[in-house]
Amino acid sequence: MTAAAVIQLRGDGNLEENLARAGHWLDRAAKAGARLAVLPENFAYYGRRDLDRAAMDEDTPEGPARRLLADKAREHKLWLVGGTVPVFGEFRDRPHAACLLVNPEGREVARYDKIHLFDVHVEATGKHYRESADYRPGSEPVVADTPFGKIGLSVCYDLRFPEFYRLQVDAGAEILVAPSAFTAATGEAHWRLLLRARAVDNLCYVLGANLAHRDHPKRPTWGGSAIVDPWGRVLAEMAGEEGYALAEVDLEKQRRIRRNMPALEHRRFCVVKGSS
């Protein structure tokens, strides 16, 4: 078994404050026994408009957010999922929202660029979001090997696309991570439901780390960070405060559930990766 933590942050300070808060809660989670930790989407740069500048600052592992991830992973011997950081790829017009997996030596061993971008009108609040104006979408699902199982990397809006996770399960994923910044309106309606659905769909552990500032005047986020087991049970969760939730990831229990409920073996249709 492995103790895993999801870190919940407000994400509404300046860069230095956001990094300090992230570091503080990573310290606390590691002290509580976490060996795997997940930070929220955009934990360092939420709401920042000059993302090109931020991406230039983060262009190498020496960028401020990436350096924090490496330092905390080394300090606490953690496997750390670094939420998302704006990082340029082949094209320099817009950065990717890059989800980074860092090993206990502080080395980035996997990177997933968010594929599904949040271009929606939220009717409950009247707010329009157009994430594609700021970010370039990625194209490839990513599943990474770790000593405690194969991790499928995803981000926020990806949770609404179950076929994406089928591709990850076909690649061996046992743990699904979803660093997020769900809005307060969509989070209240769907966040917990989607985490549990993806866990049950795929008979996987799901670790959802969300930003949380429900009363933000312009960009409220829901929180509710949670860890869900392959049977859909919520093992640990938070409300709207900063902090962390901690639970054990037990892959032997997962294998037992998959043996007793072999739904993945009963599939009659497959998902074939296409182009967007």
Gist?
Helices cover 27% and strands 28% of the residues.
Description of the molecule:
This protein is of the alpha+beta class and 276 residues long. The chain is built from 6 helices and 17 strands. The chain has helices at residues 15-31, 51-57, 64-76, 162-170, 184-202, 251-260, and strands at 2-8, 36-38, 79-81, 85-87, 96-102, 108-113, 119-122, 127-130, 142-146, 149-153, 175-180, 205-210, 212-213, 221-222, 226-228, 234-237, 243-249. The strands form 4 sheets. Strands 1, 2, 3, 4, 5, 6 and 17 form a 7-stranded mixed beta sheet that branches. The protein has a 6-stranded mixed beta sheet with strand order 9-10-11-12-15-16, covered by helices on one side. Strands 7-8 form a two-stranded antiparallel ribbon. Helix 1 (15-31) runs parallel beside helix 3 (64-76). The protein is globular, with a radius of gyration of 17 Å. The model has no long low-confidence stretch (mean pLDDT 96).
Q: What is the overall silhouette? A: globular
The level-1 CATH class: Alpha Beta
Poorly predicted residue ranges: none
Number of strands: 17
* Secondary-structure-derived class: alpha+beta
How would you sum up the major sheet?
A: 7 strands, mixed
Give a topology summary:
Blueprint: E1 2-8, H1 15-31, E2 36-38, H2 51-57, H3 64-76, E3 79-81, E4 85-87, E5 96-102, E6 108-113, E7 119-122, E8 127-130, E9 142-146, E10 149-153, H4 162-170, E11 175-180, H5 184-202, E12 205-210, E13 212-213, E14 221-222, E15 226-228, E16 234-237, E17 243-249, H6 251-260
Parallel strand pairs: 1-2, 2-3, 10-11, 11-12
Antiparallel strand pairs: 1-17, 3-5, 4-5, 5-6, 7-8, 9-10, 12-15, 13-14, 15-16
Helix pairs in contact: 1-3
